[in-house]
Amino acid sequence: MTRFSKILCLILVLSLFAAMAIGSGSDSSTSSGSGTETKSTSAPATEKDESPVIAATEAPAKTEAPVKTEAPQSVEAYEVGEGKVNVYKNSIGTYWAQVCVPVTNTGSCDLYLSSGTMDLEDADGHLVDSLQLVSVYPEVLQPGETAWYYEETTLDNEPASELKVVPHVDVAKAKVKCIRFDLSDVTISDDTFSGVKIVGRVENTTSKDEKMVYVVFFLYDEQDEMIGSAFTILTDGVKAGEKVGFTASTFAAPDSVTADKVSRYEAYAYPMQLQF
């Protein structure tokens, strides 16, 4: 091979390498440039996912809070029954009036009954007497129960006609708890002097000592008419868990009220409870 031929071959080889080098550099530059264009012209997918528009459209629907309903309040209601006045003369010629008025709890909450007043009228509506501070038993009355305003009082003269009672009761919703004690060993007999005597035991079933305890009996005849009341107060009280004997008697009931006339009775034993 001539010198010229060698030089020409060398030039051709160099030219081939140069062309290959240029081609390789051109591919690298194009690839790098393509990557740059991709970053500059296309926003990342995560930015689109966090777009406020998308967040607003995909937010869960707002739910309203449930309407709060209050439980119905206890109903305070009562009924004053027909009162009765029984006039009688005792063995020494004194005229007495036995006055009783029932009050029934017709509501759904406990009631508290305070002492009331009673007007006694004749057949023409004229006032004959006015009774003050008439006691009521029991003072705390549960739904469905009946209490009695009850009084036995003397009259100045024999009434010219039958008397009727106009009651003025004092009833309010109870603020104190209704407490009742158990009664046992109850026997009814005629009192030595007059009226009815009731003997029994009262048990304090609570965990609190009570200093004053009321025991009252309402007596009914065969016609289921209330004919009298026997009452006592245990002034020494009854300690928690103790069982104490008592004797209750009618105060000045008509002579017709005897043990054999008592068909049934209602009894209540409870501590003294004041409500202001």
Textual characterization of the structure:
The protein has about 280 residues and is α+β, with helices and mostly antiparallel strands. The chain has two domains: about 75-175, Immunoglobulin-like; about 180-275, Immunoglobulin-like (Sandwich), CATH 2.60.40. It has three helices and 15 strands. The protein has helices spanning about 5-40, 45-50, 50-60, and strands at about 80, 85-90, 95-105, 110-120, 125-135, 135, 140, 145-155, 165-175, 180-190, 195-205, 215-220, 225-235, 245-250, 265-270. Strands 1, 2, 3, 6 and 8 form a five-stranded antiparallel beta sheet that branches. Strand 2 and strand 3 (about 95-105) form a beta hairpin. The relative contact order is 0.13.
Write a short abstract of this structure.
By secondary structure, this protein is α+β, with helices and mostly antiparallel strands. It is built from three helices and 15 strands. Strands 1, 2, 3, 6 and 8 form a five-stranded antiparallel sheet that branches. Strands 4, 5, 7 and 9 form a four-stranded antiparallel sheet that branches.
